Amino acid sequence: MGRNVLLIEDEPNIIEAIRFILSRDGWSVMTHSDGRNAYQAVCQRKPDLVILDVMLPGRSGFDILQDIRADEALAGVPVLMLTAKGQSKDRDMAGLLGASKFMTKPFSNAEVLAAVRELAGS
Amino acid sequence: MASSHMTGSRIRERRLVLGMRQSDLAKAVGISPSYLNLIEHNRRRIGGKLLVDLARTLEVEASLLTEGAEAALLEELREAAAGNAEARDELARIDEFAGRFPGWAQLLAEKHRRVGELERIVETLTDRMTHDPFLSASLHEVLSTVTAIRSTAAILADTEDLDRDWQIRFHRNLRDESQRLAEGAQALVSYLDDNSADASQQQSPREEVEAFLQRHEFHFAELEGRPGNVEAILAGGVELTTPAARDMARRHLERYVQDAQILPLETFAEAAQQMQLDPGRLAQHFATDPGMVFRRLAALPEDKLPVRVGLVICDGSGALTFRRPLPGFALPRFGAACPLWPLYQALSRPMAPIRAVIEQPARPPQRFLTFALCQPVRMSGFGGPQVLEAAMLILPDLSEGAEQTQLVGTSCRICPRESCPARREPSILSAGI
After folding, report:
1. Is the pTM of this model over 0.90?
2. Of B200, B215, B234, the domain-final residue
3. Domain that holds residue B422
């Protein structure tokens, strides 16, 4: 599996931190911040892994996830969902819509790394 | 006067307190001990001379033995017994309980009321946590900021060979994010602070308005005869702790002023006496609508009324928006009332006046003469929504049972009329209670 990750997140300082840790782990990190055309970004950039925030401007991460999973070309791409609402119903929703993993903010750098490595290895 | 069902228990209790034997008491009032025994076990109802004699012998006021406040207390105890199997099994002995242990019974009723109030606070708070968009957005903001700080701080602390440019950049991010966190946390705290007053109070705005109106006995002399100062009265409304309650009270008073101008106190009170509170005749006489007559009757001071009156008003959804209680007429504290009330019959037939004698289940059954009418309140223009309001005036029934009565209740849960076709949920009362 390749080492290209697309981070879909709107908080600039979270983007910067995640980009930094993943880059140091050997990943090439692309970023995208707008919910409305996030799905198109995934189609164009064809990442090996997607990190997707739930609360995005313009469009919910759940909707974007649904589009990704409905797309046969993207069916095998692992998606790591990030959310600030760790409620079980969000977790259930993510699982139902086909998220590969689900992480609650605030997460630690080590957790992100471990999750990304796990998804890449699977 | 017919005595209540608990009178016997009270007589027995009082006799035992005095250490008097049943036979001695019977002898003193000139009845057989076995008859007294029946009375004491509430198997015989008594009144008149015998009651007076018993009271004198027992050295208490006769009214103490027949106290009328017990009906409300019993109602509350029944409500408290809801959902408790053991208590339900003993519902048949509720009179005995309240009669023999009035203090404990009062305490239980009070605690039950308090639990109800607290449950409502919890509901309000839960509702706020779940649906409050500000709280939800703030928490999201705080969590996002914390995430950025945690991540950035970890990079700074754990990356040994971090070059100077990155260091500067992450330090700056850290400073920005902590600033943002401080602001977010502060906004959250002040928001929760603002709301703590709401949270600690035990009443809904509607209840606050009711407490406010009750303190004034539903009458505002300052608003009679001249355009009084509504704001000044509101300023004295210590019960009105929330903007919502104040707003509701203001609307009530503004309507009061309008009503008072069309139906001036003295003239109206005199006509009301003359026409024996007949709202139909009064409305005709003053060429106004019966709804306004209802409200004016419920706003008259008691010395201007031959009998006490009660009034309930509901909106198109059936929610009670105004209640002036009438002693003996049981109103539900929370939730929906009895669908058989003429109030709701009126709601389904706007503009059709309804006059009905109704009977609530109690011992003895309580009868009331009611007048109900549903009218549109605001004309929002053709094509706009039609806003309806129904009102029911409640008077004591003076017909002595001569009129046909409709059987109604208070609310299903505490209503003993098991086979009622309008029943919405099972009663907690077992048959025959």
Report:
1. no
2. B200
3. 307-433
